[in-house]
Write a structure and sequence with these properties.
The protein is mainly alpha-helical. The protein folds into two domains: about 5-60; about 70-170, no CATH class. Helix content is about 55%, strand content about 5%. It has nine helices and four strands.
């Protein structure tokens, strides 16, 4: 066993002991292990060192895990989450399109909000700072949803349509959610663990105001 493998095994043993001290039992069959890093860094991890032993079971590393409905990949690119969410949204769009002729505009908007927009909005703050190319599938979903609700053609301009529907573009919606979270934190309307992570610039000596 290499030094790295021994260290990982010891860490797993310590974690199992911690769980036992808290009257918790770690289920090795449902335990997942994932290494984070760039593609170049991850390729340098020897297969023998990447496996972690939990009890009598060797847990093989995975490249994607689901946490509270968010798909997190080993490079933290969020491409898998965006891709799979967009696929689910387009599935619901196809279902709604099949009955769109029987729906009023108000009902279509409500259904779109429930089945499509809610998925784009869910935990979208974890997507802050991503490239526009990574978020492009979400923007395509938003445009397709707007065309369906307003009965527009594929070549119709969508900026005005989104304004008519009061739907923010994807990147602006993410920024809005972050700003709202900070605002609520400043007013004591969020859990303490969130407000403790935020510090106003005026109280931070490392920041200088220009």
């Amino acid at each position: 066993m290499s030094h790295r493998s021994f260290r990982h095994s010891q860490t797993a043993t310590d974690f199992i002991a911690w769980c036992a001290a808290k009257h918790l039992q770690l289920n090795a069959d449902k335990t997942e292990v994932m290494w984070f890093g760039t593609a170049a860094k991850l390729s340098k991890i020897p297969p023998a060192s990447s496996t972690i032993r939990i009890g009598s079971i060797n847990v093989q590393p995975v490249t994607v895990v689901r946490d509270l409905g968010v798909m997190i990949d080993d490079e933290l690119s969020m491409r898998v989450h965006v891709s799979r969410t967009a696929q689910t949204c387009f599935y619901h769009l196809r279902q709604l399109r099949s009955i769109s002729q029987q729906l009023s505009s108000d009902v279509a908007t409500q259904l779109m909000s429930a089945f499509v927009l809610s998925r784009l909005d869910y935990c979208n703050t974890v997507l802050a700072g991503l490239r526009a190319s990574t978020l492009a599938p979400f923007q395509r979903v938003l445009h397709a949803a707007g065309r369906l609700v307003l009965n527009l053609r594929s070549r119709d301009q969508m900026s005005a349509a989104l304004r008519e529907l009061h739907w923010l573009p994807v990147t602006q919606q993410i920024d809005y959610k972050l700003c709202l979270l900070v605002h609520k934190s400043s007013r004591g309307q969020v859990p303490e663990y969130i407000s403790n992570m935020l510090k106003t610039a005026a109280n931070n000596p490392s920041l200088t105001l220009l």
